[in-house]
UniProtKB/TrEMBL annotation:
Location of the Major facilitator superfamily (MFS) profile domain: 6-395
Protein name, per record: MFS transporter
Compositionally biased tracts (Low complexity): 413-422
Membrane topology: Multi-pass membrane protein
Localization annotation: Cell membrane
Record keyword Transmembrane present: yes
Broad class of the protein's primary localization: membrane
High-level lineage: Bacteria, Bacillati, Actinomycetota, Actinomycetes, Kitasatosporales
Length: 422
């Protein structure tokens, strides 16, 4: 088995490419908003409000849309949210210098960002063989690294040859096209979250108002990803500040960020190429510990060449940790809540990233090493939490596996086994 085998599975190339296209606006929006507003004469105060309005709205909207997908199926929620999100980008493009319109557009674009990531992760068990599921999640994790390199580069290129506003129009178009490709795929049209069964176990409690958060193991896993995101956010600020303090670094902070992203891609590919025998819960805390260790060289604040190596090393651990966590979330989420569970991961990771960036930003002017401590602290705490919760995670994961094969359908059986979404 391997990546080529996964990519040759029916619908995989279509769903993966559609998801990446539809998710490209997420990698474009922050810089596109800033450039478009500044080009329209808006002050930094408005930029400082509009970008967080997008991020906060996305954090709120993700779990809500995920729950709607679990209740209504994928096509209607994906297409409806894509249309509204595109309207938000259109508002931003039409009047970027008007505060009320810009804020409303950013809030709409974030709140209704189509939940393509959670939907794809809910589909993987239906479109690849069980023995390839780990590789599929690793491929998913690796592909996400591309977005946050390609998105800013695309905006910069468009702004250089045209206008930043054009990037907002492109974001609207990419979101619609990518979502349409995914929502009309047979796997998405036939997918439906399994109905919760009776009883008091994890499978029978999924559709309460807490949804997937009824699983204690899942809550602890998600909290760990607040710390993981915290480290990523702190690292971003550290790299920018380090580059300003060391102007001899070629390419500045962008070089360090690109090295970390490239290493993350390689790390995910390596993780997916291995046939793991350890339980998913064990792999997850072990990958978190590995990521924590990979961040520690940042504390040394070496010279430019050494920092480039430290940046690459720090990037190796994130994507494998995400790949392991994707599979563990699928195991821990109560029946009928898997899409919402994946949406919570996106939300809490993004929240952690914002908190880590803000915290590092408050200390970096007085202490570059303080920002490095912020970057390392989040993932260290996450690894400690996952290690402490390893028994609970293993028990809940094992209990979910013992429920039978109701959570998973073989690809060849999916069209017959799943009723069309209502």
């Amino acid at each position: 088995m391997g990546y080529l085998s996964v990519l040759r599975s029916p619908q995989v190339a279509r769903l993966l490419s559609g998801t990446l296209t539809g998710r490209l606006p997420a990698g474009m929006t922050a810089i596109a908003i800033a450039l478009a507003l500044r080009a329209a004469g808006a002050g930094y105060a408005l930029v400082g409000l509009t970008s967080p309005a997008y991020a906060v709205s996305a954090a709120v909207g993700g779990p809500v849309l995920g729950r709607l997908v679990d209740r209504l199926g994928q096509p209607r929620v994906l297409l409806g949210s894509a249309v509204v999100a595109s309207l938000g980008y259109v508002l931003l493009a039409l009047a970027p210098g008007t505060a009320a319109v810009a804020l409303a557009g950013a809030a709409l674009a974030g709140l209704c960002m189509p939940p393509l990531e959670p939907c794809l992760r809910a589909l993987w068990p239906d479109i690849v063989a069980e023995q390839e599921l780990e590789t599929a999640y690793a491929l998913d994790s690796a592909s996400q690294q591309i977005l946050y390199v390609a998105g800013p580069l695309l905006v910069a290129g468009v702004a250089a040859v045209g206008s930043p506003v054009t990037a907002l129009w492109l974001a609207a178009g990419f979101g619609l096209v990518g979502t349409l490709v995914v929502a009309t795929a047979p796997a998405a049209r036939t997918w439906r979250a399994p109905a919760p069964v009776g009883g008091g176990g994890a499978a029978g409690r999924g559709r309460g108002w807490l949804g997937p958060l009824r699983s204690r193991g899942l809550v602890l896993l998600l909290l760990a990803f607040v710390g993981t995101g915290w480290s990523v956010g702190g690292q971003n600020i550290l790299f920018v500040a380090y580059a300003q303090a060391r102007p001899s670094l070629p390419g500045g902070g962008g070089t360090l960020l690109a090295l970390a992203a490239l290493a993350g891609l390689l790390g995910a590919l390596a993780y997916g190429a291995v046939r793991w025998t350890a339980p998913t819960a064990t792999r997850t805390w072990a990958m978190a510990a590995g990521m924590a260790v990979s961040y520690l060289p940042l504390l040394a604040l070496p010279g430019p060449l050494g920092m480039a190596g430290a940046a690459a090393l720090s990037g190796l651990g994130l994507a494998p940790l995400l790949a392991a966590a994707f599979l563990l979330i699928a195991e821990l989420a109560p029946e009928g809540t898997v899409t919402e569970a994946f949406a919570w991961l996106v939300t809490l990771f993004s929240t952690g990233t914002a908190l880590g960036s803000a915290t590092a930003g408050t200390v970096v002017d007085s202490s570059l090493r303080g920002a490095a401590l912020v970057a390392c602290g989040g993932i260290v705490l996450a690894a400690v939490l996952l290690f402490a919760a390893r028994g609970l995670l293993a028990r809940e994961s094992t209990a979910a596996s013992g429920l039978g094969d109701t959570r998973r359908r073989e690809p060849a059986e999916a069209p017959a086994a799943v009723q069309p979404a209502a």
